[in-house]
Amino acid sequence: MRLVIGYGNELRRDDGVGPLVARTVAGWGLPGVIAIDSHGLLPELAEELSRAERAVFVDAGPGERVEVREIAPGGRETLGHTGDPAWLLALTGSVYGRCPPAWLVTVPAPDRGFGEGLSPQAAVGMAAALDEVRRLAEP
Amino acid sequence: MSDRIVIDPVTRIEGHAKITINLDGGGQVADARFHVTEFRGFERFCVGRPFHEMPGLTARVCGICPVSHILASSRTGDHLLAVTAPPAAQKLRRLMNLGQILQSHALSFFHLSGPDLVLGWDADVASRNVFGLIHADRELARAGIRLRQFGQEIIESLGGRKIHPAWSVPGGVREPLSSERREHLLKRLPEARATTQFALQAFKGLLDKHRIEAEVFGTFPSLFLGMVTPAGNWEHHDGLLRFVDAQGQPACEDIDPQRYTDYIGEAVESDSYLKTPYFKPLGYPRGMYRVGPLARLNVCERIGVPLADAELTEYRQRYGRTVNASFFYHHARLIEILAATELIEGLLADPEVLSGRTRANAGVNRLEGVGVSEAPRGTLFHHYRVNEDGILQKVNLIIATGQNALAMNATVTQIAKKYVTGTTVPEGLLNRVEGGIRAFDPCLSCSTHAAGQMPLIVTLKSADGQVLDEARR
Fold this sequence. Notes:
The structure holds 2 protein chains of 2 kinds.
Chain A: E1 2-7, H1 17-28, E2 33-38, H2 45-50, E3 54-61, E4 67-71, H3 85-96, E5 102-108, H4 120-137
Parallel strand pairs in A: 1-2, 1-3, 3-5
Antiparallel strand pairs in A: 4-5
Helix pairs in contact in A: 1-4
Chain B: E1 3-7, E2 18-23, E3 29-35, H1 42-45, H2 54-59, H3 66-81, H4 87-119, H5 130-136, H6 138-159, E4 168-169, E5 172-173, H7 179-206, H8 211-216, E6 223-228, E7 240-244, E8 264-267, E9 276-279, E10 289-290, H9 293-299, H10 306-319, H11 329-348, E11 368-375, E12 378-386, E13 392-398, H12 400-403, H13 405-419, H14 427-439, H15 444-447, E14 457-461, E15 467-471
Parallel strand pairs in B: 2-14, 6-10
Antiparallel strand pairs in B: 1-2, 1-14, 4-5, 6-7, 8-9, 11-12, 12-13, 14-15
Helix pairs in contact in B: 4-5, 4-6, 4-11, 4-14, 5-6, 6-7, 7-11, 10-11, 13-14
């Protein structure tokens, strides 16, 4: 099973691009792919991650273009306001004994103001991000 | 010479806060204060909005307990409409509230306080966290994650999402429960119950390690407030309010929530955005009271379900009929999780929860209403005044953590007096101060209606107000 987790706050405009990507992926109905949209990265995602052969995280990012990077477990040791993929992977490995290879796809998010909907730049980025997610999620 | 000790941030609590410990000229703790340094202002900016938006608006106060606000706000809306929600809606709201209590308590016990309880107060700070807990007891940690997940699944099954579910509204709820989701939740119940019983046994096995903390983490007399049924049983939604004193004697008659202002006043302190509710007949600050799991178990005669009542009996045999030691919030929390699993089972077995009649419709029929619900951390009040068009004219929110503010101050003072000497404070001592706060499981985002990035600071001050030391984690 390949797992796609898109996370972010959909009431902060471009910050909601992660969940939008995840729901789009879910709509593709790809065999062997589970897509989860979430407000944040919660410990409860660890169990699903432990069963995945590969994981793709999708989040709003600071750059001006879509970026893809492989991520390793690690990072801070406490549960804070916001999770991050490295922390969640580390938690997964600690609790379940394994975590999958994982990538983080970040989408340009110039507008994180209050409101719903994506800016034009984030919308373009979302389309490019979906191509990356499809590539990473393929068997 | 006097000093100021600063703890910053207070870790493993929801939100951000500051602790100031003031030493006197002899280097002894004179006073300690827990205060919140951020402000959000929901009570102000919601004025002018239609009241029916309030469940959605106030859910955004917090990402940990949005359900509590949604339910209290919906109950307020019921009063403004002058309707009774259909029986199915009432049961579904109760189901969601129980899921909320379960998941929040699981988070508190396993993720926030678990590292201290299992690893000890003097464990290396680098390992005294959730990863240290996992290393010490992987099965307990795994079970805790699954337990919280179950509570989240209840919320998602009803509201369509785990955080900020836009589902309960004035007059009822938007959607019924499907039979498929009901079956899924029923299948998950035995594991949730077993995990809770496992955690209860684990906690009881740890009690000897924490004898001193149990004595000094906020052990003092106070009033207690919680909801009860008309028969005096434990209640979490749509009940009467009961105040008892430190010996368990009623402080007044049981209160209709619509009349809470007859008994609860609110004070404001200059050094905190946390409002301080108090029991009016005793005045401020003598009218200090505690809310939340410890209080709910103190005010009720029984819970009303067998496994939890058996645990409650043992709990009272251990600590007394009315428990004044705040450390045992942890134990009370676990008993409430167990009660939640039993009550959830009863609700899921009730065929009425599948009914499609889930909403009563009406226009504005009252211009003032109060909705009260037991949030995981304690009694939550929403009080609205509207005009004839349903536009909010005044909003008052009384949050659980705010009601515990005076008690948290007293707790910090007690712990500081026990452990803090001089100006150099070892890590374990600082953690005990934090641990005392964590026993209350404060939700600071709610209580200031705020969330921000400012860390918690413990400041040690001299008698003349100079900061002599400050701890920031």
